[in-house]
């Protein structure tokens, strides 16, 4: 987390607001905190929400985003768009994340890197600082 606090993650499918899956953090993730989880097995720090994750459809695109806590709803994580093809090209230990927007086209850009590079640089893209 670069700023604020989140307590849930939402996976949306397609171009609309269809919620494909959701997860809830067992404790809020605060500014400066880092967390990971698997869609299938969220691990000890997360629990499956509603709807529960079932699978990804190769014909759809997805958006994953962290959501602000009930007491701090002004914050959310930067979203990340992906498809199953994009995920299939990634190696274990890699993460895909937002790195900026082209001002002339408003196109968002994403990068795939190691978790270590992500934790060292991602907040610079979002907040303009370290």
Name the helicity range.
10-25%
Structural class: mainly beta
Overall mean pLDDT stands at: 81
Tell me the number of structural domains. 1
Radius of gyration: 14 Å
Low-confidence stretches: none
Count helical runs. 2
Kindly report how far apart the N and C termini lie: 12 Å
Number of beta strands: 7
Strand percentage, roughly? 35-45%
SSE ordering: EEEEEHEEH
Biggest pleated sheet = 5 strands, antiparallel
* Widest β-sheet, arrangement of strands: 3-2-1-4-5
Shape estimate: globular
From the structure above, extract its key features.
single chain; mainly beta; two-stranded antiparallel sheet; 2 helices
Q: Could you characterize what this model shows?
A:
The chain is mostly beta strands. The chain contains two helices and seven strands, in the order βββββαββα. The chain has helices at residues 84-89, 115-127; strands at residues 5-13, 18-30, 46-48, 61-68, 80-83, 94-102, 107-114. The strands form two sheets. It has a five-stranded antiparallel β-sheet.
């Amino acid at each position: 987390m670069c700023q604020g606090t989140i307590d849930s993650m939402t996976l949306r499918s397609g171009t609309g607001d269809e919620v494909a899956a959701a997860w809830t953090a067992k404790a809020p993730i605060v500014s400066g905190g880092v967390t990971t989880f698997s869609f299938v097995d969220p691990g000890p720090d997360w629990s499956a929400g509603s709807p529960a994750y079932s699978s990804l459809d190769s014909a759809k695109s997805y958006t994953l985003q962290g959501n602000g806590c009930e007491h701090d709803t002004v914050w959310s994580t930067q979203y990340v768009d992906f498809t199953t093809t994009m995920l299939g090209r990634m190696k274990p230990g890699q993460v895909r994340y937002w790195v900026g927007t082209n001002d002339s086209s408003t196109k968002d850009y994403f990068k795939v890197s190691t978790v270590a590079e992500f934790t060292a640089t991602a907040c610079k893209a979002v907040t303009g600082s370290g």
